[in-house]
Structures are given as C-alpha cells and as structure tokens.
Amino acid sequence: MGGHLNRVVSHWASGHDSMLEQVRTLFLTLCLIWTLVGLVWADLDGVGGPYVTVGAVAAVVVPLVVGYRRGRFPRWTWLVEGVGVCVVATGSGHAVTFGLLFVWVNFRALYGSLTDQLIGGGTIFGIMAAGAVFWHLPVSDAFSMLVAASLGLIVNHVLARGIHGRDRAAVRERAVARAGAEFAATTSRSDATAVAVKTALTMDPDVNATLIAIVAGGNARIIGAAGEVEPEVAGRIASIDQLGNDVRAALVPNGFALVSGPAAARFARAFQLPPTAAVAVAPLAVHDDVFGMIVLLTRRPTDDLRASLTTLADAAALTLDQQLSRSRLKIVVEHSPDALILASERGIIRFVNPAAEKLLDRPAAGLLGSDLYLLLNPQDLAATLATPSAEARTCRIRGREDQAWTETEAMVEYFTEHDGSRSIIFNARDVSERRRLERELQHAQKVQSVGRLAAGIAHEINTPIQFIGDNVRFIEEAFAGFVKILDAYEQKLRTTEPDDTITTVIEEADFEYLREETPIAIRQCLEGITQVAHIVRAMRAFGHPGGEPKKPADLNEAIRSTIVVAANEIKLVADVTTDLAELPMVPCRIGDINQTVLNLIINAAHAIKSADRGRGTIHITTRLEPDHAVIEVADTGTGVPAEIADKLFDPFFTTKEVGSGTGQGLALVRTLVVDRHGGEIGFTSEPGVGTTFCVRLPLQDAAAPHRDEDTMEAAA
C-alpha cells in the first residue's frame, strides 16, 4: 500500500504542469481572492465578531489548500466548507456571496467522482435554503444562485473529466515515447522486458502490477514483472484456456481485453497472483504472429488504457523480436565453424568471431584493428579480394608471421554500411585437414589402382610362366633320358674300334661340357621360373583391394609378399631379415597392411641410403601380445633427431630435399593404422644408429560382437 501511495503522490506531484492542474490553480486563486474580498467588505463587528468571520474563512481556505496539495478532497469537507461559505457570505452582507459561491463550487467540481458532485449539489442546496430561511435571502436570489452554482458544478465536473482524460493520455504518450527511446538502447531481451513492464506501471496510478508473458504451445510463461507481485512470479506457466475466453480472444493482432470481477480473479488464480479488480491485456505480435502478451493489473477498470497499452505492446513486441533475432544471429556467429571477419575496405579488422580466433590462433583483442591484408598470403591476396566471390576460393592465411600458412576456402562480400562506408565480410573455412584427406585418398586410390594393375599383370603373367615352367621341366626330364642313351652309346664305342667321324663330332660339340652344364642351366631356369612365380603371387596378394569389411588375414604372409614387391627398391641399399612369430589370423584390411609395411620398408631403405654408411639392414619382426599383433620394422639408417620427432607423422612433413618427398608416407601409415584399424604406431630412434617403427593391431575387431576363438586362444 505504501508503494502505491508513493506512486500516486509522485504521479500528481509531477503532473502540476498539466492542463487540469493549471485550471485548478486558477480557480483556487480566484477562490482565495474572493475570500479576501469578502473579508474586506465584511462587517467584522457583526454577528459573531471578527473571530467568527476569520474562522469561517479559515474553514474554507485551509481545506481548499490542503486538498489542492493532496490532489483529493474527503467528502465531509463539503459540509465544513459550506458552513464557512455561509458565514463569510453572512458576514459580508451577501455582497460577494454569488461570486464566492460560484468560484468555490467550480473549483471543487474539478475534484472527485459523480458521487462527490451530488454531495456538493446537496451542500449548495442547503446553503441556499439556510440563506432563505435564516438570513432572509430572497427566494429568487437563492434560486438563481442555486441554478448557477449547480450548472457550474456540472460543467466543471465534465470539464475536469475531459481534461483529466487528456492529461492521462498525454502522460501515457510521453511514457510510450520515453519507452521507445529506452527500447532503442537495450541490448538484450531482459532489458527490453524490464523497460516494458516499468513503462506500463506508470501509465495509470491505479495500475498496481504489470506482467509480460510469452505465449507458445497453448501456454503462457511469465518472463518479466513489476509492481506489487512477488519476484518469483517470473517463470510461472499457465494454460491459455485457464486465462478465460476474453483473454484468449484478445490474443490476436490488434486485440485487447479488459476484464474485471470473476474474470479478473480467474486470471489472477491461473498465475497464482494476488486478487485484482481488473486486468488489461494487449498481445505482443510481429508480422501478424502473436508470441506473447503484456498485462496490467489495476484497481478499477480503465477503458482508455487501450490505445497506449497496445502502442506499448507493439513497440515491445518489435524490440523483443529484434533482440531475439540479434540473439539468434549472435549464437549463429559465435558457434559458426567458419571464420567470420568484418573489415573496412582498407582492411582494418572491426569484428572477428571465435572461429576466426581459433583459425588465426590469436585473441580478438589482438586481431581488432590489425590489417586483414597482412594476414593473407601475398600470392593469394589479389585473387581473393579482387571482386566479390560467389564461389569459395582457395586462400592461405595465418595469424602471425611465425605460424605456418593454413589452407582455407574463402568467400568475400563487399557492402555499404549505414554511414556510407564500404566494408568487407571475409568468410573462411579451414580445409587443410580435408585437403590432406583428399590427397591421402588420391594417393590410396593411386596405390590401389597400381595394385589392381599389378594383380592383373600378375594374373596375365601367371599362365605363360606356368607354361614355360612345365616345358622346362619336360626338357629337364627329356635331357636326363638323352644322357642315359648317350652313356649307353659311349660304353658301346669303348668296346669297339673307334670311329674317327664320331670322335670328331664329340670333340667339336664339347660333349663333356654340355653334359655337365646343361642340367645346371635347366635347374637355373627352373629356379628363375619359381622366383617369377613367387613374385607374381606376391603382386597378386599385394594388389588385393583393402575394402570393407575387415577379414581375418595372415600378417606374416602379407609381410613376405610386401618384401618381394619392395625388393627392387631395397636390393641395392640393404639386406632384409625377418623374425616372424606364429600369429593368429588378424582381422584387418589386408591391402592397408600391405601399404603400411611397404611404406615402412621404403622409408627404412631411404634412411639407410641417407646415412651413407654402406649396405645396411632392415629387420622385420612380428610378435603376439595379449590383445595385439605387433609388427616392428628396424633399420640401420640415420635415426630421427629429437627436434623433429613430434612432427614425423604430420602431413607434408619430410626430411628429404625439395622434390624428393611429399611427406605423405608416414602420415598415410598413421591413418591406415590408427584411423582405419584402431591400432597404434610409434617409434624409437637413436640418431646415427637407426630407427624402429612399431605397429600394434588389435586382435579383436571393434565392430565384431565377439573375438574369434582361435584369436582368443592364441592371445591367452
């Protein structure tokens, strides 16, 4: 209650410059002047003496001044003031009664309700009757003054109501206008909600509380409140059906509802609010879409709230919608995976989002005010910023000079801001990882194509090699038969007289040499054919496509096949030794394992060649651990320096000269082992001595429900 009184006093104190207050001040001044005139003309020595007359004047003046200051008059003051008016009129010999009565009645008509004016009319009638009966006032004069005073009472009461309505409308217009300026300064939905409820609370002294609720899904949820309500009212939810038919019908564009009595009580109960005499509701709507409502709880129905309340609701709805759009835009910008940079046309950065900070590895404070052009690779600058790009362009960017370039796809748009300046929106997406994967895929596809080609060639070679092998074996067997026949002839010739012709032929043909060397040549042919067949089988195994799904495979056989395929690369620089333990069938993509072992062997051969210490050794071992099959490839090469150890598996990192290596071999090995098989790869190295790479492949396929029985038995 105290808060309400303070608001009322503040409301009326701040409203003394209103038209109604000016009229009241004018009539009060006239009333005081006529009273003083009455004192001057009064016969102070008459009935009651001067003290009675002065007391009567005080009885009129004091209630008028006090009521004027408070902005209201208790109804009983009509009687007190009426008696004072009678005394003043009597003391002055009725000389100024008409003027005093007229000014006093017109002043009092500016206050109070219709009931107050009826009491005032009765008081005037009593004064006129007392004047006619006790002070011998002519009835015609009394009637004339009664009619004039009554007309003044009626006219000024109507005038006061009209002026009061206009003043209230002006106050609400100023409140709404002030709210518009405050809405423009808000930066969040909570700020806009607070402005709306506080403004609504000042629209009328009878408003004791205001609410703002969001309407969605058939329910209304309070998001802001002010006035005589509990702080915890925010967050309360009520069904729209609980609010009443009138309120539900008002939740349309340009709607409004003013309910009182049981309907107002029902609304208050729905939100667990204190009882209220009346409830005014205006919808919050944007683009004919109602998303909420603003509510006034008042002590009495006030129909003229509609215009100002709906205007405030429209302004609040537009601001809340704009703040929601800004909030959503902020969320999108802050959570966008793309780097967003706003810069002036000269390249001075004005805004960056978190993705840009991450891409450039610099905080926003360090980027704002810096030059965008200096962050781009000079070779890409002209093509990237020349014209607006509807399609993404490849662009390299970095946050500092000591950083490596990051490959991105960038789009640039130029636009004119509200002040006429030109700005740039630079949108970049980090594609370095994607490009790495694309290159790996291309490399893998190339290897797969070569493997398939090798498998096809091996398949084609296999048939003639078998044909040649079969024929050489036939020749071997046939020559053995010829040798037996020749031996028999030789024995026969020794027992008979030598034939010079045959002896000459044997000597010319160097028969002894042919008999010794021909079997050797045939055996060497067969060994060569066997080796070719071995290579063909290895090529077919290595070229086997490593597609889905994983299948149990013999790792040792895969290693043997890969060694054969890599023989040409390593035969001049190193010897290959193996120590292959007995392994179970391991679920894997055998093509990937072939590629992994091949890359490690070739990498070892290159390391041995770079060491320039003569012929080296590549030692390949396998062993079994409880949950993994392990492949180790050791070399006697240069070793890995400590300063580059952590970069060895990075894409594009290579220790070879420019043009000699792509830096993809070990990066691809890591992808094949870790990403595609869920395995592990590491290495130990001693510079100048050599390096050992260790590949650990799980014995159980993570995608399979159970481990193979033979794998479990072997692991145990």
Model description:
GO terms for molecular function: kinase activity. Residues 325-380 form the PAS domain. It is built from 23 helices and 18 strands. α5 packs parallel to α7 (139-185).
Q: Please state the CA-atom Rg, rounded to the nearest Å.
A: 54 Å
> Low-confidence runs (pLDDT<50, min 5 residues)?
1-16, 657-664, 705-716
Q: How much helix is in the residues?
A: 55-70%
Q: How would a crystallographer describe the biggest sheet?
A: 6 strands, antiparallel
Global geometry: rod-shaped
> Strand-residue fraction?
15-25%
Number of helices: 23
Strand order of the largest sheet: 3-2-1-6-5-4
What kind of oligomer do you see?
single chain
Integer average pLDDT: 77
- Distance between termini? 84 Å
Q: Which class of secondary structure composition applies to the elements?
A: alpha+beta
Give the total of beta strands. Answer: 18
Feature tags:
716 residues, 23 helices, 55% helix, disordered N terminus, six-stranded antiparallel beta sheet, five-stranded antiparallel beta sheet, rod-shaped, disordered C terminus, alpha+beta
Task: List the topology elements.
Elements: H1 2-13, H2 19-41, H3 49-70, H4 77-91, H5 97-108, H6 114-134, H7 139-185, H8 189-201, E1 207-216, E2 219-227, E3 237-239, H9 245-250, E4 257-260, H10 262-270, E5 278-286, E6 289-298, H11 306-335, E7 339-344, E8 349-352, H12 354-360, H13 364-367, H14 372-375, H15 378-385, E9 393-397, E10 406-416, E11 422-430, H16 432-495, H17 500-509, H18 511-542, E12 551-553, H19 555-565, H20 567-570, E13 574-580, E14 586-588, H21 590-611, E15 616-624, E16 628-635, H22 665-675, E17 680-686, E18 690-698, H23 709-715
Parallel strand pairs: 13-15
Antiparallel strand pairs: 1-2, 1-6, 2-3, 4-5, 5-6, 7-8, 7-11, 9-10, 10-11, 12-14, 15-16, 16-18, 17-18
Helix pairs in contact: 2-3, 2-5, 3-4, 4-6, 5-7, 6-7, 7-8, 7-11, 8-11, 16-18, 18-19, 19-21, 21-22
